[in-house]
Structure formats: C-alpha cells, structure tokens
C-alpha cells in the first residue's frame, strides 16, 4: 500500500476526505493546495505508517524509504532547491498531525536540512548570514530536544552565556559571528552529552525526526490528553514534511495565527495575532507579545504597535481574501497559521477552529442566517456537552469586586477557588474536594491534569492563542491569561501584585469573560437563556423526536427544569423528601416501630407533608406528566449516626438509646444496594407505599379541583418479577379508588415500573402486562449487569478506561453492548405484549449525549435528566434524530 501523499506545487494526492489517513493537518494542507491557495510544497506520511512503525518494532521498512525519496523529490522540483545541497539548500519542517488536533501534545522540528555546509549555502542565497546561523542554532536546539532527547535547558544556558559575554539582553543583538560561535558551542554540547557528533547527514536528520514524531504519539502527555478527550490510542499520527518558509527574514516577513471569527465571542471579525520578523513557534509559545491583526482590534485594545493591516497592508488584503475563501469552502470558522516571507503569503495550516460554547452557538446561528449552512446543520454544529459552559454562572454585576489584576479574557465563565501554583497540587486539592484556581506563569502540556482538575486557570504570560487559552477553551474552564502584572513565585507558592500578596490556599475569583482577577469570592448570577441560545433550542426542538423530562423533586429544581424546557418529570425521588430536617424524626419513628400500628402512626404524620410536596410539583409541572417513584433506598440510610443523634431520636421515639442501637444493628445489611430496598420495602411494609400513593392522589385531586388535572405516573423501583409489580399495583389501584371515592373525583394516572435489574429486562414481556410504562434505571441496571458497585467503581474504573477495557466510564456513557442490549431486548419484549407501552430512561445516562443517541436508536419515548442538563439533552436528542 501507499504511505506518502504529496501536496503543493500544483499537486494534491489527498484532500479533505482523507483525515483518517493523513491526519487533520495533512488533509487540510492537501485541500488548501487543491483550491489554489499558496501552500509550501510537501508530503504527508500516513497514519497507517505509524501503526506499521509500531508493529515493526519502531523501524521503517524499505518501501517507505523509496516513497519518502519520491516525496522529497516533489518538494525539490517545486522549490527548485536540493535537500542537502550546498548551493541552494532545501530546508523542511517535520510536524505531527493526528486525526483530531491535539494542541501542543506532539513534536515538531523546524529548519531540518541544515548542517555545516548547507548553512553556508543558506547564508549565500538569503544574503543574510545572521539569519542562516540563527536558523542553524535553532535547528540544533530543537532537534536535540525533540529527537536526541537532550535537555533543552543546556542550550538555553549556552545562549544566555553568549549574551552575557557580549553584554546584551536580546537574542536579536547577537550577530552572525556570535551565532556561529554559539552553533559550535551547541555542537560541543551534543557531542559531550551523547558521545557522538550532531548528525550532519540530512537524510539521517529526516528519519530521526520522523521517528520522533511517531514516538511522540506514545509520550505520557499525549496519552493523558487522549484519555481526557476519549481519543483511541490506535489512531496514530501522520507526519507532515514541508518546505520551510521564513517569517524571520526581516521587516517584510512575519508569522501569525488567526481565526476567521472571534473564537471567544463568535463575532464576525478577523481575529488573530502576528509578529514581524519571527518564526512560527514564537507566536504560539507566548514568549514575545504578539501584535493585533486588524486596525480595529488594535484601536479597541488601545495598543500602539502597528497592526498587520497597517504594517503590511497588501499582504493583509490577500490574507483577508484567503479567509473568506476558506470560510466559504469549509463552511465553518477556520483557525489558520500563516507566514509571510519577504512579502509573500504562505498558508501553513487551516482547520476548523476551536471555540468557546458561546462562540460555537453564535457562529452556528449566524452562519445559518448568512445562508452558509442550514438550520439543521447549525443544530449539528454545537457540541451538546459544551452547552454546559453557557449555562454556567457569571459574576453578579452588582457584587463588589476587589480587582487586583487584569489579563486577557481567554475562556469565559466565572470561577472561584483557592489559589494553587502547580498542577500536581491542583489535582490533589481538587481530589480532596477543594475548588482550585491554577495559577501559572504560563502553562505547558505537562500541566494538563492540573488544568482539568481546576475550576479556572490564571496565567501571567501568553496571548489568546497561548497554550493555556486554547486548552482552557477546549475544556470549558474559565481562563484569564497574560495577566502581566502578576509576579508569581513558584518557590514561595505565592503571587504579588500591587502590594497584595496571595498565598497558596487564599481565595481568588477570575472572570474569563472580562479578564479580571479578584481577591476573595465574588457572587455569581445565572446565565441568560434567550437570544441565540433560545433560537438554537427552538431549531433543535423542531427536529427532535425524543421528549425530554427532568429528574427533580424540589420546587426549585422543578422550576429550573421548566425554564430549561423540561417536558415533565421522569423521576421524582420521594426519599429526598424523607430527608427533610423536620420530617426525619417521623421517618425514624416509622422505621423503628415494632409493628404495623406503630408504623402507621408515624406515616400518618408524614402524609400531609408528602401531599403538599406533590401539590407544589403538580402545579409547577402543569400540563406535563410527573413520574413519582415510591420509596427506594434501604431504611437504615435514614437512621441516626452519632451519639447526639441517637439521643435525640431516642427521646422523640420514646425508646431507650440501647434499644435504638439494637434496632439499628438489626437493620444492618452487608450489601444494602442488593438488600432490603426498592419494591422489597413495599412488599414487606405495604403501609409505606400506601401512604405515598395516598399523598399522590390526594394532591392530584386537590390540584385538579382548582384547575388543570395533573398527570401522575406512579413508578415502582427495583422490580425483578411480575408478581412483585402485580402485588404493588393492586395496592396502588385500591388506594386510588379509595381516595377518589373519598374526595368525589377521579384522576387519570399510570402505573409503571423501573427496569433496573437484568431479570426485569429479560422478563419484560410478562412484566409489561402489569405496567403502563417502563423507565430504565440505568444507574442500577449498569451496576447489576456489570456486577460493578456504583459507589465503589471509582477505585478501579480509571484503570479500566486507561487499558481500553471500557471506552468510557459505563456509569457516564451507556455500555451499549451489554446494558444497551438489555434495554433493546426489554423494549422489544415489553412492546411485544403491550404495544402502547411508554418507554423512558431516568438513569444519569439520560443527560449524556452519546447515551441519548443510543436511546433514539432503541426507540424510547423520552429521556430524563437533571435540570442543568435539559438543554444538553434537547440538543443531543435533535442531533440523534438528524
Ligand atoms: C437508576 O438506578 O438508574 C435510578 C434512576 O435510580 P437511583 O439512581 O435512584 O437508584
Ligand atoms: Mg435505581
């Protein structure tokens, strides 16, 4: 098979459709070349080769050598230069490029092809010996770090010494001779460290770099990134070898990064940064402070340094044309890297740009209105999980703030937590339940785990495209970057700014939308749900088939869920009402009662409270179905814990403390999750379910009398057999009849069951004869199908995900092959008996986008999710239907 694909110089062996094979970067370079954009010629070594390389014990077969030679040939012909030639040498860059971009995760080598001879050739053809020697020393430094594995500090140190010796501060103050001497010093370092000289053979250089790029796929930081982003390890990376173009050839040269629209707000304006006389990595690394692309952006920021629009107007004009062309071609916002070499524009990369949820939303809606995409495409463009960011609170504008610094608004949302100054501490403290703000001078890929653990990220250095900004936006973490006035001292674990000192553990608030950094905790307000957000939800609702309900039991949650668009309640966990501080005593009395009479007496006290809860919920959910689940957890969960509580309960229940303790001991269970819980409580203590049922129907009649009749659905938990459901259903129906007779009015209602045990799924056919609906309780169904305790899984599940045993945590994203098969089977068998059977899901999976896609496929009628996940579920349900 073929491993090398050329692009540029009038050739394109690949294109947009080849992302799996060529990686995102390679496919886009080929695509850009094919639509006539100026792309430096090069070739891509496919991801297949990466797999091959690892299968072959990290060696290259002979076929690949011939193909790479052909690829090099293509670049030589297109550039009219020779690789390793002393006269007019070809230099190349070697970059990784996986299917999806993994910013900063993998390695790059620039200026490859320089050696002691070719550097002279470059000096002659460029007419700029300083530039040639600077390129050579950069190359040795990068290659030694990435390919030879030498400590990059050794070279930094030599550079610092060279400057000190000359008495200068800036790299640019070193002249050609200084740099020539520095190159010699660098080569000495390599030889000292490795016992062999720096490779002079350009082909050896190339293979070393290709091997290093493949090797970086398995680096620790790449593995962590893949795990966090659910990227399979077997995808591999492609390698792009491309002719170098130089942004550091004087004042008509530049390098920059740009977005075709603002990646933070989505505003339709070119957005980016550039540096005159600089090489690619300088912008991204956040070392020099980049300048604005457009005049408008510069003016808005009140900056002095000329924008590209002002400094290089012609090239800017061409760039703007390219931006428009790319947006129309890709029909999406693009993230672009470019270089200007002596006035000529070169495109180095384009890809669909990462953006905040806010920007994703605005861009999708705007593009649909501009006619670039359809409404349905707009619905597909927004990642449901990212909507979370929009639903996050922002700072209360009326709250007092003590602003101590201002940086760039790199990723929106407000975050508050204790300051920590390194990633490991961030992870550790977050693990202990602290909310943390990770404060760094700048971040690097080694900090990823800490950024993930943090509520927000604050850096002193780096622009909007710095590592911290890009990664934080991707993760949905609020971030303020480049707050240059912060003096951060890692050793002292403290920062100082304008006379204020913030030590590790002190509370900070950051506002990723304004860039403000505040001392202490600042109150927040709930987000605005109208505007673009409302429009997207409207478009989503037009196409979705699945209904979306909520899991809620407090009036507050019910109202929030309604505001987010919930179409009823899919799970009201009545036990949460039992935990109420005032009621817990009656609950405990009920549990401790020696006999039915005692239990009934205590239950009678609970009845009015339950009834008024239901009245409130029915009123909030007017016109929508409300699924109320009868008591589920094991009784001992309600019992007292400490000595104080024992004394209090003993007093209230009028029993001795010893007697109480004995009763608690009797209730002890070894496996409470598989013990006396769910409908087993209703079977053994029918009076509990009878009271709850009475409360439901009394409330329903009360509400119906004053207006619209509610739609109660009574749900029985943890059913394993038809007989259990039959017994409890009789109890429910009998209670309903009694209440309706007493109150002189009847209400339509449904009785159904949760399917959360494998036996119930298997016997769904007969269980459906007793049920009007099934609701899949996938938390328990996952626990019981996998035999994995939902409360203890955390200890080993990460290892399972790391080893690829599960692609995702099965408690988060449904195990389609196992639990999913039971759901499909139960749906089929249930509807086989009762064609009109209503089917829903109320486990946590009901708010998980990929599980929702599964539910669509399984033909369920609704999903039920916690209030804040309602918009996510509406969008995910729409995407699943498209
Ligand atoms: C379930 O098991 O999926 C469920 C919704 O019930 P609970 O989480 O209350 O056990
Ligand atoms: Mg359950």
UniProtKB/TrEMBL annotation:
Residues 20-58, 78-304, 318-370 form the Pyruvate phosphate dikinase AMP/ATP-binding domain. GO terms for molecular function: ATP binding; kinase activity; metal ion binding; pyruvate, phosphate dikinase activity. Its EC number is 2.7.9.1. Belongs to the PEP-utilizing enzyme family. The keyword Nucleotide-binding applies. It catalyses: pyruvate + phosphate + ATP = phosphoenolpyruvate + AMP + diphosphate + H(+). It comes from the Bacteria. The active site is at 467 (tele-phosphohistidine intermediate), 842 (proton donor). This is Pyruvate, phosphate dikinase. NCBIfam families: PRK05878.1, pyru_phos_dikin. The keyword Transit peptide does not apply. Substrate binds at residues 573, 629, 756, 777-780.
């Amino acid at each position: 098979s073929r491993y090398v694909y050329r692009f540029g110089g009038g050739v394109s062996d690949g294109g947009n459709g080849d992302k799996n094979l060529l990686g995102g970067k390679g496919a886009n370079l080929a695509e850009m070349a094919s639509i006539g954009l100026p792309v430096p010629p090069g070739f891509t070594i496919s991801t297949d080769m990466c797999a091959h390389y690892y299968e072959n014990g990290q060696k290259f077969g002979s076929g690949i050598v011939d193909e790479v030679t052909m690829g090099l040939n293509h670049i030589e012909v297109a550039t009219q230069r020779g690789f390793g030639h002393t006269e007019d040498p070809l230099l190349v860059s070697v970059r990784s490029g996986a299917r999806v971009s993994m910013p900063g995760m993998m390695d790059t080598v620039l200026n490859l092809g320089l050696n002691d001879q070719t550097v002279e050739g470059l000096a002659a053809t460029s007419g700029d010996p300083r530039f040639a020697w600077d390129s050579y020393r950069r190359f040795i430094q990068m290659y030694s770090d990435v390919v030879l594995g030498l400590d990059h500090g050794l070279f930094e140190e030599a550079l610092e010494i060279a400057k000190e010796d000359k008495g200068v501060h800036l790299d640019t103050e070193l002249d050609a001779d200084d740099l020539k001497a520095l190159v010699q010093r660098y080569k000495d370092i390599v030889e000292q460290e490795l016992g062999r000289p720096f490779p002079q053979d350009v082909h050896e250089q190339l293979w070393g770099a290709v091997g290093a790029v493949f090797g970086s796929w398995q680096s620790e930081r790449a593995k962590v990134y893949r795990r966090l982003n659910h990227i399979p390890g077997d995808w591999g990376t492609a390698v792009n070898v491309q002719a170098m173009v130089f942004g550091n050839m004087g004042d008509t040269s530049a390098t920059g990064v740009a977005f075709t629209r603002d990646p933070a707000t989505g505003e339709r304006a070119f957005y980016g940064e550039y540096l005159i006389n600089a090489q690619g990595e300088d912008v991204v690394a956040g070392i020099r402070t980049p300048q604005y692309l457009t005049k408008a952006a510069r003016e808005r920021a009140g900056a002095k340094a000329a924008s590209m629009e002002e400094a290089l107007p012609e090239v800017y004009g061409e760039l703007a044309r390219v931006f428009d062309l790319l947006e129309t071609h890709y029909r999406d916002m693009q993230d672009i890297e470019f270089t200007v070499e002596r006035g000529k524009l070169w495109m180095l990369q384009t890809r669909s740009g990462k953006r905040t949820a806010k920007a994703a939303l605005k861009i999708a809606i705007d593009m649909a209105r501009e006619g670039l995409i359809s409404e349905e495409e707009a619905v597909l463009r927004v990642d449901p999980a990212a909507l979370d960011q929009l639903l996050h609170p922002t700072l209360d504008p009326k709250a007092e703030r003590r602003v101590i610094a201002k940086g760039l608004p790199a990723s929106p949302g407000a975050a508050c937590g204790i300051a920590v100054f390194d990633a490991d501490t961030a992870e550790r403290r977050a693990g202990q339940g602290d909310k943390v703000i990770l404060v760094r001078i700048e971040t690097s890929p080694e900090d990823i785990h800490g950024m993930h653990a943090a509520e927000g990220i604050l850096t002193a250095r780096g622009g909007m495209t710095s590592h911290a900004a890009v990664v934080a936006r991707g993760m949905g973490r609020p971030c303020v970057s480049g707050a240059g006035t912060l003096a951060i001292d890692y050793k002292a674990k403290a920062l100082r700014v304008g006379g204020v000192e913030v030590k590790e553990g002190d509370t900070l608030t950051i506002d990723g939308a304004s860039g403000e950094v505040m001392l202490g905790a600042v109150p927040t307000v709930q987000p605005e749900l109208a505007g673009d957000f409302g429009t997207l939800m409207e478009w989503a609702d037009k196409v979705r088939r699945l209904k979306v309900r909520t899991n809620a039991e407090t009036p507050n949650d019910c109202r929030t869920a309604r505001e987010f668009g919930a179409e009823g309640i899919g799970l009201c966990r009545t036990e949460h009402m039992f935990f109420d501080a005032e009621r817990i005593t009656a609950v405990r009395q009920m549990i401790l009662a020696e006999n039915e009479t005692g239990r009934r007496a205590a239950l009678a006290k609970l009845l009015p409270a339950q009834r008024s809860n239901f009245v409130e919920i029915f009123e909030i959910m007017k016109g929508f179905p409300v699924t109320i689940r009868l008591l589920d957890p094991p009784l001992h969960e309600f019992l007292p814990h400490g000595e104080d509580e024992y004394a209090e309960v003993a007093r209230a229940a009028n029993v001795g403390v010893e007697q109480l303790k004995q009763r608690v001991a009797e209730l002890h269970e070894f496996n409470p999750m598989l013990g006396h819980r769910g409908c087993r409580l209703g079977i053994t203590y029918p009076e509990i379910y009878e009271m709850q049922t009475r409360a439901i129907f009394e409330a329903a009649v009360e509400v119906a009398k004053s207006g619209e009749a509610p739609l109660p659905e009574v749900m029985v938990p943890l059913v394993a057999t038809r007989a259990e459901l039959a017994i409890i259903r009789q109890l429910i129906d009998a209670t309903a009849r009694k209440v309706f007779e007493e109150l002189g009015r009847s209400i339509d209602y449904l009785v159904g069951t949760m399917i959360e045990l494998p036996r119930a799924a298997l016997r769904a056919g007969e269980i459906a004869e007793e049920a009007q609906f099934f609701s899949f309780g996938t938390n328990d169904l996952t626990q019981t199908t996998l035999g994995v305790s939902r409360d203890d899984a955390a200890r080993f599940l990460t290892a399972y995900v790391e080893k690829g045993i599960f692609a995702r945590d099965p408690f988060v994203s449904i195990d389609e092959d196992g639990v999913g098969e039971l759901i499909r089977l139960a749906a089929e068998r249930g509807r086989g008996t009762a064609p009109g059977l209503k089917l829903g899901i109320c486990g946590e999976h009901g708010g998980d986008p990929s599980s929702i896609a599964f539910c669509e496929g399984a033909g369920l009628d609704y999903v039920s999710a916690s209030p804040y996940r309602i918009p996510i579920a509406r969008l995910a349900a729409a995407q699943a239907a498209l």
